[in-house]
Each structure stands twice: as structure tokens, then as C-alpha cells.
Amino acid sequence: MYSTLFVTVIVTAVVLVLAAYVIAKLIGPRSYNKIKGEPYECGIPTHGSSWLPVSIGYYLFAILFLMFDIETVFLYPWAMVVHEFGVKAIASIGFFLLVLVFGLAYAWRKGALEWK
Questions:
Q1: Which residue of 3, 67, 76, 105 is most buried, as measured by CB atoms within 10 A?
Q2: Is 44 helix (H, G, I), strand (E, B) or coil?
Q3: What is the model's pTM?
Q4: How far apart are CA 56 and CA 39, in angstroms?
């Protein structure tokens, strides 16, 4: 039973993808010219080299955001099991949050959160 269902799902997926591709090729626009192939940014033609140096602040800010965003995701599983583990769970999450606060304070003190 499961094998026929699996084959049916796979065949349906392949047919739908192929049908979407064929329909897009049949009714899609076909006007190609040199201007459409050029790279653009906000509709303004680029002048000079596109390889400009980017401030490291953008990367630091993004890494800090991802770090704190991902670490706060770990709070959800803890919240689901806190009633089972009691004081041990509260102590462990307290230490976890303390490390997060120290990391945030360190980044703040170093000026990583200032947008320059």
C-alpha cells in the first residue's frame, strides 16, 4: 500500500513540475535583447567596478543578529520540558541567559552594535 502511494506522489510531483515548465515555455514572453541581459541595481546602470570594499560592520551586525536569534530559539525546547526537570532546568537556563547577557554586554561595550 505504501509503495503505490509513494509512486503516485512521485509521479504526480514530476508531472506537475514538467507541466509548469512546459506551460511557462509556451506562454512566457520571448523578447530578448542586449539591454535585458545587463546587470542592474535599482534601475541605474553601474559605472566602474562592482567590487567595492564593504564595511566589516555589516558582517559583525549580521553575525551578532544570527547568533542571538539562533540562541533564543533554544529557549523553546527548554520551555517545553521545564516542568519535568524543575530547579535543574531553571538553573541551566539561567546560566544560558547569563552567557547571552555577557555576550551582548561585550558586543555593546566594543561598539559592535553601533551603526556607522
A1: 67
A2: strand
A3: 0.47
A4: 25
Residue 39 CB burial class (10 angstroms; 0-12, 13-18, ≥19)? exposed
H or E stretch at 72: helix 56-73
Question: Based on the number of CB atoms within 10 Å of its own CB, is 78 exposed (0-12), middle (13-18) or buried (19 or more)?
Answer: middle
> How confident is the model over 47-71, as pLDDT tens digits?
677 677 777 778 888 888 888 888 8
User: Given the C-alpha cell 551578532, which residue does it identify?
Assistant: 64
Cell of 28: 512566457
Residue 78 Cα distances to 9, 34, 43, angstroms? 37, 56, 48
Are 56 and 67 in contact by the 8 Å Cβ rule? The answer is no
Q: Which residues pair with 44 in a beta bridge?
A: 41
Backbone dihedral angles phi then psi of residue 60, each to the nearest 5 degrees: -60, -45
Here the cell at position 66 is: 544570527
